[in-house]
């Protein structure tokens, strides 16, 4: 949350020269933290006592070394065969035979988008030019968090089927400029990436994974990596009380899907170039993951939306409309809204510690979030267990029964272009909790008001039929469960009528009659069971991201690099 400190004065310049930039003399300085250049032909007036002077002063630029993408010696005055264009011939004839180098660096633009900007600096002789290139490269080589070798998976059918083109045109050139080597796999079927990661991939060869696709594709890669990590460490993921081993490799997401909420909620935009640059600079954002079990069988992991009722039904309907691309969610959304089905069941949950806040906090999770840096609340559960007190029976669990239009859980905001603040606007990426949102039966009109508030600034939780809880674990049992809760059916006074229909549904699994059940939408996959147990695993995975930056971060002085 903290505003980054202003750049420190360059106490120990590693290199300082007068170089020419667009035919003007600039004093160029490299320190271990910044590359800066200042036009010395127009000396700006200082307006305050600060040694930085007015940082907006014309001609002063600071680029943090950690945001430099690459440095290259520039070939002057020759046709650039790569792009088939001639470079601009300098006006000043004296400059035409000079040596130059080009530094590419991150430039922030509105809406959290990053772009690759360049500055070309001319030197009087080649030795000086090489000295500069070498000095900058040396500083870059000290940034050991940057990945050098990546394994890339592309889903050619995600979103609008543009994954391959997006990767080739926008991302691969950035990786090659940053000297990142890649192995690229274009998937041939669903679960290809997951299975490859689970069993075949030689993960030791890589510093990270890249997923080109949507939330479904990300989910595949996450499943492959988590399962592989547990198997390699001898951890049984079927046991719902296991402490899972965090994954070592970071995952980068190049958005090319329908919803792209994991990317949007961790980076602030769904822009392929921005994501590629976050990978290049080696960002790292830990992220919570929910594990979902049915009795003692592992079903799936979830990071974004785990939704029963409305979002489950939207997904079930939209799967038949995949050919429509992203628009399928709008059509199925309207259809599901009109059907206005509600489902009965019981939710039990273990509330999170108070110090992590509540789902209605005004405070949102942003880059460097203080709540996510707290010692993890998650660990408390295991401590309680070890000391013999069973948290499950000591009264901490709360139980809610009712008729629900929607039951949603999200361990992050789920912000996406459709809903910029997300399903759970105050959920934290890495605090070990999920926000549980219960929407009880209400009128169609009220439900519509609630849904529409996801798309504007109004508070979607400010309705009498909506309840929200911040939880570490929860369970759901539908009132009329298949197979194992005949007893509950009888206890609950289940009418012969209900039993009759639940019987029909059991015998005709394809029947979409939803008297008793909806399905869970788990990050865009349909789960086979309605009765589930869910637990949040704090910071189980890491992404090449940094969380959403506060707007002030890309105000001065950090934007001074803009030319
Ligand atoms: C009638 C008006 C309705 C407006 C409701 C707007 C609410 C939007 C909240 C969206 C939350 C999305 C959470 C992300 C879910 C993804 O995991 C999943 C799968 O995404 P994918 O297809 O793989 O990109 N997408 C959906 C829509 O279920
Ligand atoms: N080559 C492939 N052919 C068919 N399906 C695939 C392929 N590769 C991945 N998938 C599956 O496609 C599904 C949707 O992919 P995703 O990239 O999330 O796009 P969208 O956001 O449009 O749903 C994922 O669940 C993934 O498992
Ligand atoms: Ca969380």
TrEMBL record:
Coiled coil: none annotated. One of its GO terms (biological process) is ceramide metabolic process. InterPro entries: ATP-NAD_kinase_N (IPR017438), CERK_C (IPR045363), CERK_PH (IPR057465), Diacylglycerol_kinase_cat_dom (IPR001206), Lipid_Phosphate_FormReg (IPR050187), NAD/diacylglycerol_kinase_sf (IPR016064). GO terms for cellular component: membrane. Residues 145-296 form the DAGKc domain. One of its GO terms (molecular function) is ceramide kinase activity. It holds the Pfam family PH_CERK. It comes from the Eukaryota. Transmembrane segments: none annotated. SUPFAM superfamilies: NAD kinase/diacylglycerol kinase-like (SSF111331). This is DAGKc domain-containing protein. It comes from Silurus meridionalis (Southern catfish).
């Amino acid at each position: 949350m903290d505003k980054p400190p202003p750049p420190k004065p360059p106490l120990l310049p590693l290199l300082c020269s007068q170089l020419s930039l667009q035919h003007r003399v600039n004093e160029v300085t490299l320190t271990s933290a910044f590359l800066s250049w200042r036009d010395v032909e127009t000396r700006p007036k200082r307006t305050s006592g600060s040694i930085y002077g007015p940082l907006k002063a014309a001609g002063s630029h600071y680029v943090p070394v950690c945001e430099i993408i690459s440095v290259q010696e520039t070939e002057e005055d020759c046709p650039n065969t790569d792009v088939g264009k001639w470079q601009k011939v300098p006006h000043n004839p004296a400059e035409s035979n000079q040596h130059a180098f080009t530094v590419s660096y991150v430039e922030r633009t509105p809406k959290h988008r990053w772009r690759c900007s360049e500055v070309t600096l001319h030197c009087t002789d080649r030795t000086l030019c090489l000295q500069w290139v070498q000095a900058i490269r040396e500083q870059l080589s000290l940034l050991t968090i940057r990945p050098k070798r990546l394994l890339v998976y592309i889903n050619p059918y995600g979103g609008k089927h543009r994954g391959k083109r997006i990767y080739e045109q926008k991302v691969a050139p950035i990786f090659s400029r940053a000297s990142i080597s890649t192995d690229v796999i274009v998937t041939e079927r669903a679960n290809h990436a997951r299975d490859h990661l689970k069993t075949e991939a030689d993960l030791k060869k890589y510093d990270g994974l890249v997923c080109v696709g949507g939330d479904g594709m990300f989910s595949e890669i996450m499943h492959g990596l988590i399962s592989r990590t547990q198997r390699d460490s001898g951890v049984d993921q079927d046991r719902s009380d296991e402490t899972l081993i965090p994954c070592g490799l970071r995952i980068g997401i190049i958005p090319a899907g329908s919803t792209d909420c994991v990317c949007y909620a961790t980076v602030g935009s769904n822009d392929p170039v921005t994501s590629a640059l976050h990978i290049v600079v080696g960002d790292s954002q830990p992220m919570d993951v929910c594990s979902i079990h049915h009795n003692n069988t592992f079903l799936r992991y979830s990071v974004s939306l785990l939704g029963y009722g409305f979002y489950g039904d939207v997904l079930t309907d939209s799967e038949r409309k995949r050919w429509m691309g992203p628009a399928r969610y709008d059509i199925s959304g309207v259809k599901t809204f009109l059907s206005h089905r509600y489902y009965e069941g019981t939710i039990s949950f273990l509330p999170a510690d108070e110090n992590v806040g509540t789902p209605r906090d005004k405070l949102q999770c942003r880059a460097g979030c203080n709540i996510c840096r707290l010692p993890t609340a998650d660990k408390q559960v295991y401590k309680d267990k070890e000391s013999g007190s069973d948290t499950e029976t000591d009264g901490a669990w709360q139980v809610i029964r009712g008729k629900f239009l929607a039951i949603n859980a999200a361990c992050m905001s789920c912000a996406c272009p459709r809903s910029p603040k997300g399903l759970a606007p105050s959920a934290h990426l890495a605090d070990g909790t999920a926000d549980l949102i219960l929407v009880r039966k209400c009128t169609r009109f009220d439900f519509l008001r609630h849904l529409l508030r996801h798309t504007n600034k109004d508070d979607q939780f400010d309705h009498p039929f909506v309840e929200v809880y911040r939880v570490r674990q929860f369970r759901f049992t539908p009132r009329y469960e298949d197979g194992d809760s005949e007893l509950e059916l009888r206890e609950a006074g289940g009418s012969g009528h209900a039993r009759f229909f639940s019987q029909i549904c059991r015998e005709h699994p394809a029947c979409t009659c939803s008297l008793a059940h909806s399905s869970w939408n788990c990050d865009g996959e349909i789960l086979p069971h309605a009765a589930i147990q869910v637990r949040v695993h704090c910071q189980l995975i890491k992404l090449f991201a940094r969380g959403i930056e506060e707007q002030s971060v890309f105000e001065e002085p950090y934007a001074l690099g803009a030319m």
